[in-house]
From TrEMBL, chains A, B:
Domain of life: Bacteria
CDD domains per the UniProt record, alphabetical: WHTH_GntR
Pfam family, one: UTRA
Domain HTH gntR-type per the UniProt entry, residue ranges: 9-77
Stated name of the protein: GntR family transcriptional regulator
InterPro entries: Bact_HTH_transcr_reg (IPR050679), Chorismate_lyase_/UTRA_dom_sf (IPR028978), Tscrpt_reg_HTH_GntR (IPR000524), UTRA (IPR011663), WH-like_DNA-bd_sf (IPR036388), WH_DNA-bd_sf (IPR036390)
Key words of the record: DNA-binding, Transcription, Transcription regulation
The species this protein was found in: Actinoplanes hulinensis
Amino acid sequence: MPVSRRGQLPVWQQIAEELRTSINDGTLLPGSRLPTEAELTERYQVARNTARQALTALVNEGLVTPARPRGYFVRDRKPLYYRPQQEFRPRPLSPEMDIFLAEHSADGRQPAQSIEVAIVDPPRDVKKRLNLGDGELAVVRRRVRYLDGEPFHTNDSYFPLRLVQDTEIMRPEDIARGANQVLAEVGYLQVRALDEFYVRMPTPDEARRLSIGPGTPIAYHLVTGLTEEGQPVRVVLNVLPGDRHVIAFERTRVALPTQAAE
Amino acid sequence: MPVSRRGQLPVWQQIAEELRTSINDGTLLPGSRLPTEAELTERYQVARNTARQALTALVNEGLVTPARPRGYFVRDRKPLYYRPQQEFRPRPLSPEMDIFLAEHSADGRQPAQSIEVAIVDPPRDVKKRLNLGDGELAVVRRRVRYLDGEPFHTNDSYFPLRLVQDTEIMRPEDIARGANQVLAEVGYLQVRALDEFYVRMPTPDEARRLSIGPGTPIAYHLVTGLTEEGQPVRVVLNVLPGDRHVIAFERTRVALPTQAAE
DNA sequence: AAGTGGTCTAGACCACCAC
DNA sequence: TGGTGGTCTAGACCACTTA
Protein backbone atom coordinates (compact mmCIF):
# COMPACT_ATOMS: atom_id res chain seq x y z
CA MET A 1 0.00 0.00 0.00
CA PRO A 2 1.12 3.53 -0.72
CA VAL A 3 2.54 4.51 2.64
CA SER A 4 6.13 5.54 2.44
CA ARG A 5 8.44 5.78 5.40
CA ARG A 6 10.39 8.50 3.65
CA GLY A 7 7.36 10.62 2.89
CA GLN A 8 6.89 14.17 4.09
CA LEU A 9 4.14 12.98 6.35
CA PRO A 10 4.42 10.52 9.20
CA VAL A 11 3.07 7.09 8.39
CA TRP A 12 0.17 7.39 10.81
CA GLN A 13 -0.93 10.60 9.11
CA GLN A 14 -0.84 8.94 5.73
CA ILE A 15 -3.03 6.15 7.01
CA ALA A 16 -5.40 8.62 8.64
CA GLU A 17 -5.57 10.57 5.41
CA GLU A 18 -6.52 7.51 3.38
CA LEU A 19 -9.28 6.64 5.81
CA ARG A 20 -10.46 10.25 5.87
CA THR A 21 -10.67 10.24 2.09
CA SER A 22 -12.70 7.05 2.10
CA ILE A 23 -15.10 8.67 4.53
CA ASN A 24 -15.42 11.89 2.58
CA ASP A 25 -15.91 10.34 -0.83
CA GLY A 26 -18.57 7.99 0.45
CA THR A 27 -16.61 4.77 0.23
CA LEU A 28 -17.16 4.50 3.97
CA LEU A 29 -20.69 5.65 4.73
CA PRO A 30 -21.85 6.90 8.12
CA GLY A 31 -22.43 3.95 10.37
CA SER A 32 -20.12 1.62 8.51
CA ARG A 33 -17.19 -0.15 10.07
CA LEU A 34 -13.57 0.80 9.51
CA PRO A 35 -10.81 -1.76 9.17
CA THR A 36 -9.78 -3.16 12.54
CA GLU A 37 -6.46 -2.25 14.09
CA ALA A 38 -5.19 -5.69 13.19
CA GLU A 39 -6.26 -5.28 9.57
CA LEU A 40 -4.51 -1.94 9.31
CA THR A 41 -1.26 -3.24 10.80
CA GLU A 42 -1.41 -6.03 8.29
CA ARG A 43 -2.37 -3.89 5.30
CA TYR A 44 0.23 -1.19 5.88
CA GLN A 45 2.86 -3.39 7.51
CA VAL A 46 3.21 -1.24 10.60
CA ALA A 47 3.12 -1.78 14.34
CA ARG A 48 -0.26 -1.82 15.95
CA ASN A 49 0.45 1.42 17.80
CA THR A 50 1.01 3.17 14.50
CA ALA A 51 -2.31 2.03 13.11
CA ARG A 52 -3.84 2.98 16.43
CA GLN A 53 -2.43 6.47 16.23
CA ALA A 54 -4.13 6.97 12.90
CA LEU A 55 -7.46 5.80 14.24
CA THR A 56 -7.10 7.85 17.41
CA ALA A 57 -6.56 10.95 15.31
CA LEU A 58 -9.83 10.35 13.48
CA VAL A 59 -11.60 9.81 16.77
CA ASN A 60 -10.28 13.14 18.04
CA GLU A 61 -11.48 14.83 14.89
CA GLY A 62 -14.94 13.56 15.63
CA LEU A 63 -15.10 11.53 12.41
CA VAL A 64 -15.03 8.11 13.93
CA THR A 65 -16.06 6.43 17.13
CA PRO A 66 -14.73 3.23 18.66
CA ALA A 67 -17.36 0.68 19.71
CA ARG A 68 -15.56 -2.08 21.45
CA PRO A 69 -15.48 -4.92 20.69
CA ARG A 70 -17.13 -4.37 17.36
CA GLY A 71 -14.54 -2.06 15.86
CA TYR A 72 -14.37 1.58 14.79
CA PHE A 73 -17.34 3.14 13.05
CA VAL A 74 -17.92 6.23 10.95
CA ARG A 75 -19.95 8.69 13.00
CA ASP A 76 -23.33 9.86 11.92
CA ARG A 77 -23.93 13.49 12.82
CA LYS A 78 -27.61 14.43 12.93
CA PRO A 79 -27.77 17.65 14.89
CA LEU A 80 -31.10 19.24 15.72
CA TYR A 81 -31.90 22.92 15.50
CA TYR A 82 -31.57 24.93 18.68
CA ARG A 83 -33.20 28.37 18.64
CA PRO A 84 -32.23 30.72 21.43
CA GLN A 85 -34.70 33.30 20.10
CA GLN A 86 -37.59 30.98 20.73
CA GLU A 87 -37.78 31.98 24.34
CA PHE A 88 -38.70 35.56 23.58
CA ARG A 89 -41.69 34.52 21.55
CA PRO A 90 -45.19 34.44 22.98
CA ARG A 91 -46.60 31.00 23.61
CA PRO A 92 -49.68 29.34 25.00
CA LEU A 93 -49.93 28.43 28.63
CA SER A 94 -48.10 25.14 28.87
CA PRO A 95 -45.43 23.23 30.76
CA GLU A 96 -41.98 24.67 31.01
CA MET A 97 -40.74 22.04 28.65
CA ASP A 98 -42.99 23.10 25.85
CA ILE A 99 -40.50 24.93 23.78
CA PHE A 100 -38.04 22.13 23.92
CA LEU A 101 -40.83 19.74 23.18
CA ALA A 102 -42.27 21.73 20.32
CA GLU A 103 -38.84 22.03 18.78
CA HIS A 104 -37.98 18.40 18.88
CA SER A 105 -40.92 16.11 19.33
CA ALA A 106 -41.88 16.68 15.73
CA ASP A 107 -39.15 14.25 14.85
CA GLY A 108 -41.01 11.56 16.70
CA ARG A 109 -38.36 11.56 19.41
CA GLN A 110 -39.25 11.28 23.06
CA PRO A 111 -38.23 14.33 25.07
CA ALA A 112 -37.77 14.23 28.83
CA GLN A 113 -36.00 16.27 31.47
CA SER A 114 -34.77 16.20 35.02
CA ILE A 115 -34.96 19.25 37.28
CA GLU A 116 -32.97 19.97 40.38
CA VAL A 117 -33.01 23.17 42.42
CA ALA A 118 -30.23 24.36 44.69
CA ILE A 119 -29.05 27.45 46.52
CA VAL A 120 -25.44 28.04 45.63
CA ASP A 121 -22.55 30.41 45.50
CA PRO A 122 -22.58 30.64 41.71
CA PRO A 123 -19.54 30.29 39.45
CA ARG A 124 -17.61 33.43 38.70
CA ASP A 125 -19.03 33.66 35.18
CA VAL A 126 -22.52 33.88 36.55
CA LYS A 127 -21.70 36.06 39.56
CA LYS A 128 -20.22 38.72 37.37
CA ARG A 129 -23.17 38.83 35.02
CA LEU A 130 -25.70 38.94 37.85
CA ASN A 131 -23.77 41.70 39.60
CA LEU A 132 -23.74 39.67 42.79
CA GLY A 133 -21.80 40.94 45.76
CA ASP A 134 -19.31 38.78 47.63
CA GLY A 135 -21.07 35.97 49.41
CA GLU A 136 -24.41 36.76 47.83
CA LEU A 137 -26.18 33.58 46.88
CA ALA A 138 -28.23 32.45 43.93
CA VAL A 139 -30.84 29.88 43.14
CA VAL A 140 -30.05 27.53 40.34
CA ARG A 141 -32.53 25.39 38.46
CA ARG A 142 -30.46 22.67 36.83
CA ARG A 143 -31.95 20.71 34.04
CA VAL A 144 -30.73 17.91 31.86
CA ARG A 145 -32.83 17.38 28.81
CA TYR A 146 -33.06 14.03 27.11
CA LEU A 147 -34.17 12.80 23.74
CA ASP A 148 -35.06 9.16 23.45
CA GLY A 149 -33.37 8.61 26.78
CA GLU A 150 -30.08 10.09 25.60
CA PRO A 151 -28.83 13.27 27.28
CA PHE A 152 -29.21 16.13 24.86
CA HIS A 153 -28.07 19.26 26.65
CA THR A 154 -27.96 20.89 30.06
CA ASN A 155 -29.70 24.09 31.00
CA ASP A 156 -28.85 25.77 34.32
CA SER A 157 -30.79 28.94 35.18
CA TYR A 158 -29.44 31.18 37.94
CA PHE A 159 -31.50 33.80 39.79
CA PRO A 160 -30.37 36.09 42.59
CA LEU A 161 -31.73 34.51 45.78
CA ARG A 162 -33.16 37.75 47.13
CA LEU A 163 -35.38 38.17 44.07
CA VAL A 164 -36.97 34.76 43.98
CA GLN A 165 -37.13 33.68 47.60
CA ASP A 166 -40.48 32.04 48.30
CA THR A 167 -41.50 31.88 44.65
CA GLU A 168 -42.25 28.82 42.61
CA ILE A 169 -38.77 29.08 41.21
CA MET A 170 -37.47 27.48 44.39
CA ARG A 171 -39.43 24.30 43.79
CA PRO A 172 -37.95 21.52 41.69
CA GLU A 173 -40.98 21.16 39.49
CA ASP A 174 -41.99 22.19 36.07
CA ILE A 175 -43.29 25.77 36.07
CA ALA A 176 -46.29 25.78 33.82
CA ARG A 177 -46.09 29.39 32.73
CA GLY A 178 -42.30 29.60 32.69
CA ALA A 179 -39.84 30.96 35.22
CA ASN A 180 -39.60 34.25 33.34
CA GLN A 181 -43.28 34.86 33.92
CA VAL A 182 -42.80 34.23 37.64
CA LEU A 183 -39.98 36.75 37.66
CA ALA A 184 -42.18 39.24 35.84
CA GLU A 185 -44.93 38.77 38.41
CA VAL A 186 -42.61 39.76 41.23
CA GLY A 187 -41.60 42.87 39.34
CA TYR A 188 -38.69 41.80 37.20
CA LEU A 189 -39.89 41.67 33.63
CA GLN A 190 -37.05 40.96 31.24
CA VAL A 191 -37.00 43.01 28.08
CA ARG A 192 -33.50 42.28 26.79
CA ALA A 193 -31.15 39.36 26.68
CA LEU A 194 -27.44 39.08 25.92
CA ASP A 195 -26.26 35.87 24.33
CA GLU A 196 -22.68 34.63 24.41
CA PHE A 197 -21.37 31.44 22.86
CA TYR A 198 -18.03 29.91 23.73
CA VAL A 199 -16.80 27.01 21.65
CA ARG A 200 -14.47 24.56 23.38
CA MET A 201 -13.87 20.98 24.37
CA PRO A 202 -15.93 19.71 27.30
CA THR A 203 -14.46 19.35 30.74
CA PRO A 204 -14.41 15.76 32.02
CA ASP A 205 -17.41 16.64 34.20
CA GLU A 206 -19.42 17.95 31.30
CA ALA A 207 -18.42 14.97 29.21
CA ARG A 208 -19.68 12.61 31.89
CA ARG A 209 -22.92 14.45 32.53
CA LEU A 210 -23.81 14.52 28.84
CA SER A 211 -22.15 11.31 27.65
CA ILE A 212 -19.93 13.23 25.28
CA GLY A 213 -17.38 11.10 23.51
CA PRO A 214 -13.89 12.19 22.48
CA GLY A 215 -13.67 14.51 19.51
CA THR A 216 -16.93 16.25 20.33
CA PRO A 217 -16.74 19.94 21.22
CA ILE A 218 -19.48 21.89 22.94
CA ALA A 219 -21.02 25.32 22.73
CA TYR A 220 -21.17 26.96 26.10
CA HIS A 221 -24.13 29.30 25.84
CA LEU A 222 -24.63 32.10 28.35
CA VAL A 223 -27.79 34.18 28.40
CA THR A 224 -28.11 37.24 30.61
CA GLY A 225 -31.69 38.49 31.02
CA LEU A 226 -32.13 42.18 31.78
CA THR A 227 -35.01 44.32 32.95
CA GLU A 228 -36.00 47.63 31.41
CA GLU A 229 -33.59 49.35 33.82
CA GLY A 230 -30.76 47.09 32.75
CA GLN A 231 -30.75 45.06 35.93
CA PRO A 232 -29.64 41.46 35.34
CA VAL A 233 -32.14 39.08 36.91
CA ARG A 234 -31.33 35.78 35.28
CA VAL A 235 -28.31 34.02 33.85
CA VAL A 236 -28.73 30.82 31.91
CA LEU A 237 -25.86 28.48 31.30
CA ASN A 238 -26.37 25.94 28.55
CA VAL A 239 -23.98 23.23 27.48
CA LEU A 240 -24.75 22.10 23.94
CA PRO A 241 -22.80 19.14 22.54
CA GLY A 242 -21.77 20.00 19.00
CA ASP A 243 -22.83 16.71 17.51
CA ARG A 244 -26.42 17.23 18.63
CA HIS A 245 -27.13 20.90 17.91
CA VAL A 246 -27.26 23.50 15.21
CA ILE A 247 -27.70 26.90 16.76
CA ALA A 248 -30.03 28.96 14.63
CA PHE A 249 -31.54 32.40 14.74
CA GLU A 250 -32.94 35.03 12.50
CA ARG A 251 -32.18 38.69 12.04
CA THR A 252 -34.08 41.47 10.40
CA ARG A 253 -32.79 44.75 9.18
CA VAL A 254 -32.86 47.31 11.95
CA ALA A 255 -31.92 50.46 10.08
CA LEU A 256 -32.91 52.46 7.04
CA PRO A 257 -31.62 51.09 3.76
CA THR A 258 -28.90 53.69 3.61
CA GLN A 259 -26.08 51.31 4.35
CA ALA A 260 -25.67 47.59 4.49
CA ALA A 261 -22.41 46.30 5.78
CA GLU A 262 -21.12 43.03 4.53
CA MET B 1 3.14 9.61 43.96
CA PRO B 2 -0.47 8.56 44.30
CA VAL B 3 -0.99 6.66 41.08
CA SER B 4 -2.18 3.16 41.63
CA ARG B 5 -2.05 0.42 39.05
CA ARG B 6 -5.08 -1.20 40.64
CA GLY B 7 -7.21 1.90 40.63
CA GLN B 8 -10.50 2.20 38.82
CA LEU B 9 -8.90 4.64 36.45
CA PRO B 10 -6.05 3.92 34.05
CA VAL B 11 -2.73 5.34 35.15
CA TRP B 12 -2.59 7.85 32.32
CA GLN B 13 -5.97 9.25 33.36
CA GLN B 14 -4.81 9.62 36.93
CA ILE B 15 -1.78 11.57 35.76
CA ALA B 16 -3.92 13.71 33.47
CA GLU B 17 -6.31 14.38 36.33
CA GLU B 18 -3.53 15.58 38.61
CA LEU B 19 -2.23 17.93 35.98
CA ARG B 20 -5.75 19.15 35.22
CA THR B 21 -6.28 19.92 38.87
CA SER B 22 -3.05 21.88 39.04
CA ILE B 23 -4.21 23.92 36.08
CA ASN B 24 -7.67 24.57 37.45
CA ASP B 25 -6.61 25.53 40.94
CA GLY B 26 -4.01 27.95 39.67
CA THR B 27 -0.91 25.99 40.62
CA LEU B 28 -0.09 25.98 36.93
CA LEU B 29 -1.00 29.37 35.50
CA PRO B 30 -1.73 30.03 31.83
CA GLY B 31 1.54 30.23 29.98
CA SER B 32 3.51 28.18 32.48
CA ARG B 33 5.37 25.03 31.63
CA LEU B 34 4.22 21.56 32.57
CA PRO B 35 6.61 18.85 33.67
CA THR B 36 8.43 17.32 30.72
CA GLU B 37 7.64 13.82 29.57
CA ALA B 38 10.88 12.67 31.14
CA GLU B 39 10.00 14.25 34.46
CA LEU B 40 6.59 12.60 34.49
CA THR B 41 7.98 9.15 33.68
CA GLU B 42 10.40 9.62 36.56
CA ARG B 43 7.90 11.03 39.02
CA TYR B 44 5.22 8.42 38.41
CA GLN B 45 7.53 5.54 37.53
CA VAL B 46 5.82 4.78 34.25
CA ALA B 47 6.88 4.28 30.66
CA ARG B 48 7.29 7.41 28.61
CA ASN B 49 4.32 6.46 26.42
CA THR B 50 2.09 6.43 29.46
CA ALA B 51 3.13 9.90 30.52
CA ARG B 52 2.73 10.94 26.91
CA GLN B 53 -0.80 9.62 26.78
CA ALA B 54 -1.72 11.79 29.75
CA LEU B 55 -0.25 14.87 28.10
CA THR B 56 -1.85 14.08 24.75
CA ALA B 57 -5.23 13.89 26.43
CA LEU B 58 -4.77 17.39 27.85
CA VAL B 59 -3.71 18.63 24.44
CA ASN B 60 -6.87 17.18 22.90
CA GLU B 61 -8.96 18.87 25.57
CA GLY B 62 -7.45 22.17 24.53
CA LEU B 63 -5.92 22.78 27.95
CA VAL B 64 -2.30 22.42 26.97
CA THR B 65 -0.15 22.95 23.94
CA PRO B 66 3.17 21.37 23.07
CA ALA B 67 5.94 23.77 22.04
CA ARG B 68 8.86 21.70 21.01
CA PRO B 69 11.55 21.68 22.22
CA ARG B 70 10.58 23.85 25.13
CA GLY B 71 7.99 21.55 26.64
CA TYR B 72 4.24 21.58 27.17
CA PHE B 73 2.55 24.79 28.22
CA VAL B 74 -0.77 25.73 29.74
CA ARG B 75 -2.83 27.44 27.08
CA ASP B 76 -4.06 30.96 27.46
CA ARG B 77 -7.50 31.47 25.98
CA LYS B 78 -8.25 35.11 25.21
CA PRO B 79 -11.14 35.04 22.79
CA LEU B 80 -12.47 38.25 21.26
CA TYR B 81 -16.10 39.12 20.80
CA TYR B 82 -17.63 38.35 17.44
CA ARG B 83 -20.97 40.01 16.74
CA PRO B 84 -22.91 38.66 13.79
CA GLN B 85 -25.58 41.33 14.35
CA GLN B 86 -23.10 44.05 13.64
CA GLU B 87 -23.58 43.72 9.93
CA PHE B 88 -27.21 44.77 10.02
CA ARG B 89 -26.39 48.02 11.71
CA PRO B 90 -25.98 51.30 9.84
CA ARG B 91 -22.47 52.55 9.56
CA PRO B 92 -20.53 55.36 7.95
CA LEU B 93 -19.05 55.05 4.51
CA SER B 94 -15.83 53.18 5.03
CA PRO B 95 -13.75 50.24 3.82
CA GLU B 96 -15.21 46.78 3.88
CA MET B 97 -12.98 45.87 6.77
CA ASP B 98 -14.37 48.53 9.01
CA ILE B 99 -16.56 46.40 11.18
CA PHE B 100 -13.84 43.94 11.80
CA LEU B 101 -11.48 46.79 12.44
CA ALA B 102 -13.82 48.65 14.77
CA GLU B 103 -14.42 45.48 16.69
CA HIS B 104 -10.85 44.63 17.28
CA SER B 105 -8.44 47.48 16.80
CA ALA B 106 -9.55 48.91 20.11
CA ASP B 107 -7.39 46.26 21.69
CA GLY B 108 -4.37 47.78 20.06
CA ARG B 109 -4.09 44.79 17.78
CA GLN B 110 -3.24 45.11 14.12
CA PRO B 111 -6.01 43.85 11.83
CA ALA B 112 -5.37 42.84 8.23
CA GLN B 113 -7.07 40.74 5.61
CA SER B 114 -6.50 39.00 2.33
CA ILE B 115 -9.19 38.89 -0.37
CA GLU B 116 -9.52 36.45 -3.21
CA VAL B 117 -12.35 36.23 -5.71
CA ALA B 118 -13.28 33.17 -7.72
CA ILE B 119 -16.10 31.75 -9.80
CA VAL B 120 -16.95 28.33 -8.50
CA ASP B 121 -19.41 25.52 -8.30
CA PRO B 122 -20.20 26.10 -4.64
CA PRO B 123 -20.28 23.44 -1.93
CA ARG B 124 -23.58 21.69 -1.37
CA ASP B 125 -24.28 23.61 1.84
CA VAL B 126 -24.17 26.85 -0.06
CA LYS B 127 -25.90 25.63 -3.19
CA LYS B 128 -28.89 24.51 -1.25
CA ARG B 129 -29.25 27.78 0.61
CA LEU B 130 -28.86 29.86 -2.55
CA ASN B 131 -31.39 27.73 -4.42
CA LEU B 132 -28.91 27.22 -7.21
CA GLY B 133 -29.81 24.88 -10.04
CA ASP B 134 -27.49 22.13 -11.17
CA GLY B 135 -24.38 23.56 -12.75
CA GLU B 136 -25.29 27.11 -11.82
CA LEU B 137 -22.22 28.95 -10.66
CA ALA B 138 -21.48 31.39 -7.89
CA VAL B 139 -18.96 34.06 -7.13
CA VAL B 140 -17.07 33.66 -3.91
CA ARG B 141 -15.15 36.37 -2.11
CA ARG B 142 -12.78 34.52 0.18
CA ARG B 143 -11.20 36.39 2.99
CA VAL B 144 -8.80 35.47 5.72
CA ARG B 145 -8.63 37.99 8.50
CA TYR B 146 -5.57 38.43 10.62
CA LEU B 147 -4.80 39.99 13.95
CA ASP B 148 -1.21 40.88 14.67
CA GLY B 149 -0.24 38.72 11.72
CA GLU B 150 -1.98 35.65 13.11
CA PRO B 151 -4.93 34.21 11.18
CA PHE B 152 -8.11 34.96 13.07
CA HIS B 153 -10.97 33.63 11.00
CA THR B 154 -12.10 33.03 7.44
CA ASN B 155 -15.06 34.66 5.78
CA ASP B 156 -16.27 33.36 2.42
CA SER B 157 -19.20 35.16 0.82
CA TYR B 158 -21.05 33.46 -2.03
CA PHE B 159 -23.30 35.24 -4.52
CA PRO B 160 -25.21 33.75 -7.45
CA LEU B 161 -23.12 34.60 -10.50
CA ARG B 162 -26.07 35.85 -12.53
CA LEU B 163 -26.86 38.50 -9.92
CA VAL B 164 -23.45 40.06 -9.55
CA GLN B 165 -21.85 39.66 -12.96
CA ASP B 166 -20.01 42.85 -13.89
CA THR B 167 -20.36 44.40 -10.44
CA GLU B 168 -17.59 45.39 -8.08
CA ILE B 169 -18.18 42.16 -6.24
CA MET B 170 -16.18 40.40 -8.94
CA ARG B 171 -13.07 42.39 -8.17
CA PRO B 172 -10.68 41.20 -5.47
CA GLU B 173 -10.57 44.51 -3.69
CA ASP B 174 -12.04 46.06 -0.66
CA ILE B 175 -15.53 47.39 -1.40
CA ALA B 176 -15.77 50.68 0.38
CA ARG B 177 -19.51 50.67 0.89
CA GLY B 178 -19.85 46.94 1.46
CA ALA B 179 -20.90 44.14 -0.84
CA ASN B 180 -24.42 44.22 0.54
CA GLN B 181 -24.82 47.77 -0.67
CA VAL B 182 -23.66 46.74 -4.13
CA LEU B 183 -26.25 43.99 -4.12
CA ALA B 184 -28.90 46.46 -3.04
CA GLU B 185 -27.96 48.79 -5.89
CA VAL B 186 -28.62 46.08 -8.45
CA GLY B 187 -31.99 45.39 -6.91
CA TYR B 188 -31.36 42.83 -4.22
CA LEU B 189 -31.71 44.54 -0.90
CA GLN B 190 -31.45 42.08 1.97
CA VAL B 191 -33.93 42.53 4.76
CA ARG B 192 -33.53 39.27 6.61
CA ALA B 193 -30.74 36.90 7.49
CA LEU B 194 -30.71 33.35 8.83
CA ASP B 195 -27.80 32.39 11.04
CA GLU B 196 -26.70 28.83 11.67
CA PHE B 197 -23.81 27.72 13.86
CA TYR B 198 -22.30 24.28 13.74
CA VAL B 199 -19.77 23.33 16.37
CA ARG B 200 -17.20 20.74 15.39
CA MET B 201 -13.52 19.93 15.04
CA PRO B 202 -11.78 21.53 12.06
CA THR B 203 -10.98 19.57 8.95
CA PRO B 204 -7.25 19.27 8.26
CA ASP B 205 -7.68 21.94 5.57
CA GLU B 206 -9.32 24.38 7.92
CA ALA B 207 -6.73 23.64 10.56
CA ARG B 208 -3.96 24.46 8.11
CA ARG B 209 -5.56 27.61 6.72
CA LEU B 210 -6.13 29.04 10.20
CA SER B 211 -3.19 27.52 12.09
CA ILE B 212 -5.51 25.68 14.42
CA GLY B 213 -3.75 23.38 16.85
CA PRO B 214 -5.14 20.09 18.17
CA GLY B 215 -7.86 20.36 20.79
CA THR B 216 -9.33 23.49 19.26
CA PRO B 217 -12.85 23.22 17.85
CA ILE B 218 -14.43 25.70 15.50
CA ALA B 219 -17.79 27.32 14.96
CA TYR B 220 -18.92 26.99 11.39
CA HIS B 221 -21.15 29.99 10.86
CA LEU B 222 -23.53 30.16 7.92
CA VAL B 223 -25.48 33.28 7.08
CA THR B 224 -28.16 33.30 4.42
CA GLY B 225 -29.22 36.79 3.31
CA LEU B 226 -32.73 37.15 1.95
CA THR B 227 -34.59 39.86 0.08
CA GLU B 228 -38.06 41.11 0.92
CA GLU B 229 -39.46 38.40 -1.34
CA GLY B 230 -37.49 35.72 0.47
CA GLN B 231 -35.03 35.22 -2.35
CA PRO B 232 -31.60 34.17 -1.07
CA VAL B 233 -28.93 36.38 -2.60
CA ARG B 234 -25.94 35.78 -0.40
CA VAL B 235 -24.50 32.98 1.71
CA VAL B 236 -21.61 33.66 4.04
CA LEU B 237 -19.49 30.88 5.39
CA ASN B 238 -17.36 31.76 8.38
CA VAL B 239 -14.93 29.52 10.20
CA LEU B 240 -14.30 30.78 13.71
CA PRO B 241 -11.66 29.02 15.81
CA GLY B 242 -13.07 28.53 19.29
CA ASP B 243 -9.99 29.75 21.10
CA ARG B 244 -10.21 33.15 19.42
CA HIS B 245 -13.91 34.00 19.44
CA VAL B 246 -16.88 34.58 21.67
CA ILE B 247 -20.02 34.82 19.58
CA ALA B 248 -22.26 37.50 21.01
CA PHE B 249 -25.59 39.01 20.16
CA GLU B 250 -28.48 40.75 21.75
CA ARG B 251 -32.21 40.12 21.77
CA THR B 252 -35.13 42.27 22.69
CA ARG B 253 -38.61 41.20 23.58
CA VAL B 254 -40.75 40.90 20.50
CA ALA B 255 -44.15 40.26 22.01
CA LEU B 256 -46.52 41.69 24.56
CA PRO B 257 -45.67 40.87 28.15
CA THR B 258 -48.36 38.26 28.32
CA GLN B 259 -45.99 35.36 28.28
CA ALA B 260 -42.30 34.96 28.77
CA ALA B 261 -40.88 31.58 28.10
CA GLU B 262 -37.89 30.42 30.01
C1' DA C 1 25.01 21.01 21.34
C1' DA C 2 21.62 19.55 24.34
C1' DG C 3 17.20 18.58 25.36
C1' DT C 4 12.67 18.46 23.87
C1' DG C 5 8.78 16.16 21.86
C1' DG C 6 7.51 13.15 17.47
C1' DT C 7 7.50 8.71 15.56
C1' DC C 8 7.78 3.85 15.41
C1' DT C 9 8.53 -0.97 16.87
C1' DA C 10 7.46 -5.38 19.29
C1' DG C 11 5.41 -7.42 22.56
C1' DA C 12 2.35 -8.28 26.67
C1' DC C 13 -1.83 -8.60 29.41
C1' DC C 14 -6.52 -7.23 30.18
C1' DA C 15 -11.74 -6.04 30.04
C1' DC C 16 -15.51 -6.19 27.63
C1' DC C 17 -19.39 -7.82 25.07
C1' DA C 18 -21.50 -9.57 20.68
C1' DC C 19 -22.10 -13.89 18.86
C1' DT D 1 -15.52 -17.52 24.26
C1' DG D 2 -13.14 -15.20 20.64
C1' DG D 3 -12.00 -11.00 18.86
C1' DT D 4 -12.01 -6.33 19.75
C1' DG D 5 -9.94 -2.22 21.43
C1' DG D 6 -7.56 -0.31 25.98
C1' DT D 7 -3.47 -0.06 28.51
C1' DC D 8 1.31 -0.38 29.44
C1' DT D 9 6.27 -1.36 28.83
C1' DA D 10 11.05 -0.72 26.99
C1' DG D 11 13.59 0.80 23.81
C1' DA D 12 15.19 3.18 19.48
C1' DC D 13 16.02 6.87 16.26
C1' DC D 14 14.84 11.38 14.56
C1' DA D 15 13.87 16.57 13.85
C1' DC D 16 13.63 20.63 15.58
C1' DT D 17 14.81 24.88 17.91
C1' DT D 18 16.28 27.45 21.34
C1' DA D 19 19.94 28.76 24.42
